[in-house]
Design a protein that fits this description.
- This protein is of the alpha/beta class.
- The protein has a single domain, classed as Rossmann fold (3-Layer(aba) Sandwich), CATH 3.40.50.
- The chain contains eleven helices and 13 strands.
- It has a seven-stranded parallel beta sheet with strand order 3-2-1-4-5-6-11, with helices on both faces. It has a two-stranded parallel sheet with strand order 7-10.
- Strand 1 (2-6), helix 1 and strand 2 (28-33) form a beta-alpha-beta unit.
- The longest helix is centred in the N-terminal third of the chain and has 20 residues, at 95-114.
- It binds nicotinamide-adenine-dinucleotide.
- Nicotinamide-adenine-dinucleotide binds next to helix 1, helix 4 and strand 5.
């Protein structure tokens, strides 16, 4: 089968590329990425030598370019990871989130319809469900939990999800959607909590924590997310939404302290800063549907996953330095 994977130079997409290109030598994968500030060609450079893989630089909102690519490559499956993904940026500049996350999805689905793609998969987020109270631990997001967003980021992802549902119902596009909780693992851009903590702690710099650090996230290792996406794409039922969660609810403060402990750094580095506007309190995912229907389950506990992840960043400080210096932008040569 011929796959298009968008956003494959980003955090989750690059981990996905490594997983599938190695696992399925008889399938062919085109990785499409615009290499925005969040796209890092270093994440996927080592795949260049693979026969079943090709990188294409391009923008999912560019209709003509996407049409040409679909015409040329005749994809069977499209998996859309490409997005603007950082909530803080969406609060400062919502426009590009609507363009990439909603219009980009529309452009990909129009091409998928025109060229008879057999499966269009949208990578979405648990943030479309809004948040849960801190004092009701029994509540979790299910696939039928109403969409109720807080940030321009989550609203743009929810808008895309609604459009995917509409393209399935109105035009019969064979779609699936996955909604996953907070990911951690190698290759995460150092704007998100875990790589920020590690990169700042390495330099003994103050580590900013929003509010009191009591916001709860359900952490999942990126590999477990990607195993789930692969199962949904291959075995999931058309028209369905599948939740993927890590069964690992932790407050932000707990996460920061766990990392500092492993790095042998003082908790005095923690500095509480003004809370994010509209900050969601708690996310928690019920993944029963994915577990029962697809046999999916997480393979990492938070404890072993975070340990391996911190070790990865400590063993790859060059990767972080390359981003902090801006040098990573030169990794891709046309
Ligand atoms: N990070 C998480 O915890 C998390 C959790 C659930 C869902 N998701 C979703 O997973 C997907 C990937 O997230 P991530 O954390 O890897 O994001 P990321 O920001 O690390 O990567 C996004 C990638 O998309 C590319 N991109 C952006 N705009 C593009 C465009 N117009 N055309 C082509 N490529 C473009 C970027 O260059 C980058 O490589 C997103 O759709 C996100 O909403 C993320």
């Amino acid at each position: 089968m011929r796959f298009l994977v968008t956003g494959g130079a980003g955090f989750i997409g690059s981990n996905y590329m490594h997983y599938v290109v190695n696992k399925y030598p008889n399938d062919y994968f085109v990785c499409l990425d615009a290499l925005t500030y969040a796209g890092n060609y270093n994440n996927i450079k080592d795949l260049e030598e693979k026969d079943n893989y090709k990188f294409v630089k391009g923008d999912i909102t560019d209709k003509e370019f996407i049409d040409d690519l679909f015409n040329k490559e005749q994809f069977d499956v499209v998996i859309n990871f490409a997005a603007e993904s950082h909530v803080d940026n969406s609060i400062k500049n919502p426009g590009v989130f609507l363009t990439t996350n909603i219009i980009g999805t529309q452009v990909l689905m129009d091409a998928s319809l025109k060229y008879n793609v057999k499966r269009y998969h949208q990578v979405s987020t648990d943030e479309v469900y809004g948040d849960l109270p801190l004092d009701k631990p029994e509540l979790k997001f299910r696939e039928d939990t109403p969409i109720h967003t807080s940030s321009p980021y989550s609203s743009s992802k929810a808008g895309a999800d609604l459009l995917v549902g509409a393209y399935h119902r109105t035009y019969g596009l064979p779609t699936t959607i996955s909604r996953c909780s907070n990911n951690y693992g190698p290759y995460q851009f150092p704007e998100k909590l875990i790589p920020v903590v590690i990169s700042k702690a390495l330099k003994n710099e103050k580590i900013p924590v929003y509010g009191t650090g009591s916001n709860v996230r359900d952490w999942i290792h990126v590999i477990d997310h990607n195993i789930g996406v692969d199962l949904i794409v291959r075995n999931g039922r058309v028209g369905e939404v599948y939740n993927l969660g890590g069964h690992s609810e932790r407050t932000n403060l707990e996460v920061v302290k766990t990392i500092l402990k492993q790095m042998g750094k003082s908790e005095d580095l923690i500095t509480f800063v003004e809370d994010r506007k509209g900050h969601d309190l708690r996310y928690a995912i019920d993944s029963t549907k994915s577990e029962d229907e697809l046999g999916w389950n997480r393979t990492y506990t938070f404890e072993n996953g975070i340990k391996e992840t911190v070790d990865w960043y400590l063993n790859n400080t060059e990767w972080i330095d390359n981003i902090l210096s801006g040098e990573y932008k030169n990794a891709y040569k046309d």
